[in-house]
Amino acid sequence: MAEPELLFVPLGGAGEIGMNLSLYGYGDDWLMIDCGVTFSDDRYPGLDVFVPDVSFVKEKVKKLHGIVVTHAHEDHIGGISHLWRFLKCPVYVTPLASGHLRRKLSESGLLGRVPVIEIEPAGSEKIGPFSFEFISVAHSIPETQAVSLKTPRGTVLHITDWKLDSQPLVGPVTDERALQALGREGVIAMMCDSTNIQVSGWSGSEGPLRKSLIEIVGSCSKRVLIACFASNITRLLTCVEAAERAGRTVGLVGRSLWNMVENARRCGYLDGVRDFLPPEEIGYLPRDRVLLIATGSQGESRAALSRIAADSHRDIVVEKGDTVIFSSKEIPGNERAIGRIQNQLSRQGVNVITERDAFVHVSGHPARDEVSQLYDWVKPPLLIPIHGETRHLSEHVKFALSSGIPNSILVQNGSVLRLSPGLPQIIDEVPVGRYAVDGASLLPVDSPVLKTRRRLSTGGMVAVSLVLNGQNGLIKEPEISLLGVGEDAEDETNDLVDEMLDEIRHSLGSLRRSAKNSDVIIKEAASKAIRVVLKDKRYTRPTINIHVFRL
Q1: Are 409 and 381 in contact (CB under 8 A)?
Q2: Is the Cβ–Cβ distance between 483 and 493 less than 8 Å?
Q3: Quick one: which of 15, 20, 248, 425 could link to 291 by a disulfide (CB 3.0–4.6 Å)?
Q4: What whole-number distance in Å separates Cα of residue 12 and Cα of residue 35?
Q5: Is a pLDDT exceeding 60 seen at residue 206?
Q6: Please, are residues 251 and 292 in contact by the beta-carbon 8 Å criterion?
């Protein structure tokens, strides 16, 4: 019997930023690396996150031996609590990621059902025909790991979310020796982060950034608020030191920050750091003696910073002369939402500082010179770009080939790449997509429910109740409700409703002579009457709901 092929199938993170999910298959045996989410935007009102479509796993994968999680960022771990009921396999995580995952599983009612296996940084494990070894790398959250995956067909290095930082401040530097040793042993392929492949030079170090933020905070008067990712423990500690140097007390605003702080304390990353002030106590301190750390640096509508900027936060108010520092990178796609918050703050006289204005952020992902250095250490014969939009992946292929890598292939979500035996090539495509997390439900992005929500958010709704007798005659005046349709002036809206009523009466009058007219025909006639009025008034096309009752 021929030895099985080794396959690589990304279902997320290849052609987009976020929602990372990669599969490795050897015959009937499969292993998953990461299972993340991506965040919603204004196109999907009322929704926060999306998860990958795992129908391929449910329908085609016979043995999924486990999920190996590289680190605790939501775009790598956040999908597990939503999708595990379809995957039903052990999850392998480091201690920090374990604490984060267990909290999410508890919220989903899965704690105790999901086998969570803790692996120490730089640890290893054998799973079915696969064995993996973690390699510690620097990133914007502690305990980030590259995965050296050993298979019967050879070794693959899966290294997503990493950088070369000589002063990471929290956690070790990227393990150069382990990567060089792996290069000497030989790999058949390397899957590599592409986020900053269009950026020349180096990504920068957390050490010099800490000095810069200390200086900036020290020069500020009144209240200072720093917006950053809740998971960036190093940046959190930098904010603490900057506050202490300036004689300020640190307060936290945002549930995810408090959750991450609790987890980081459990793992020993905040030893010696005093307790943080909760939002309800911050107002008792003078404005020039407080530094706030808040979630929402990406413009998330429900995050703390968004509510603060809109002056709708229960406890926190910003005033003229306060300073808000965005200590994070704008993730592609979030520019509009971030700009809206920055404009709201500026209108209130708040000083807004971003990475365009001062040295307030360094990326957690490698720039071109760092990627080139990794090539030199590992010397992969095949480079597969991951973790990036199509433009990033395409540029990474060009960069790899120009750097002397023998082969590089552009794969995207759904590509089935045969790594071995023979010449590596894409041999198939599998269904991919995303599902919206709607409470405890998962909805396809093209579902009627989400389409209706989008229509309601853009065109509003007209609801009509008709009470008819057996001959289709009106027993009482139709009732019309307008939601998001009409004029601000009440009398003008009333005129619009009156015109709709007249048109409905006229339309139904022509149908009343036939008792055979069904409810469907009645509804179509009433809907057409409303559209005639709205078209004449040059309104957008709202959702129209007609309810028929017969007495």
Answers
A1: no
A2: no
A3: 248
A4: 8
A5: yes
A6: yes
DSSP per-residue letters across 275-295: PPBPHHHHTTS-GGGEEEEES
DSSP string, 449-498: HHHHHHHHHHH-EEEEEEEE-TTS-BSS--EEEEES-S-SSHHHHHHHHH
457-505 confidence digits (pLDDT tens):
667 788 888 888 877 778 888 888 887 776 666 667 778 888 888 888 8
- Rounded Cα distance between 146 and 143, Å, is 10
Q: Which of 192, 120, 125 is nearest to 156 (CA)?
A: 192
**Is there a contact between 224 and 323 (Cβ–Cβ < 8 Å)?**
yes
The whole-angstrom separation of Cα 164 and Cα 180 is 14
Using omega within 30 degrees of 0 as the cis cutoff, is the peptide bond preceding 129 cis? no
Tokens found for residue 50: 């999306």
Helix/strand/coil for 134: strand
CB 212 within 8 A of CB 360: yes
355-398 pLDDT, tens digit each: 999 999 999 999 999 999 999 999 999 999 999 999 999 999 99
Please tell me what DSSP assigns to residue 187.
-
Taking the C-alpha atoms of residue 211 and residue 18, their distance in angstroms, rounded to an integer, is 30
H/E stretch holding 545 reads strand 543-550
- Sheet strand arrangement including 38-39: 38-39, 49-52, 434-438, 441-444
Q: State the Cα–Cα distance between residues 100 and 75, nearest whole angstrom.
A: 13
What is the DSSP track for 331-387? -TT-HHHHHHHHHHHHHTT-EEE-TTTSS----SS--HHHHHHHHHHH--SEEEEES
Strands 388-389 vs 14-15: parallel, antiparallel or unpaired: parallel
- C-alpha span between 164 and 110 (Å, rounded): 37
* pTM score: 0.85
pLDDT digits (tens, 9 = 90+) for 133-183: 999 999 999 999 999 999 999 999 999 999 999 999 999 999 999 999 999
Query: Are residues 289 and 251 in contact, defined by beta-carbon separation less than 8 angstroms?
Result: no
């019967």: which residue's tokens?
152
Tokens of 280: 């309800």
Rounded-to-integer distance, Cα 527 and Cα 529, Å: 5
Assign 144 to helix, strand or coil. coil
Find out whether 427 and 419 touch, Cβ atoms under 8 Å.
Answer: no
3-state secondary structure of 431: coil
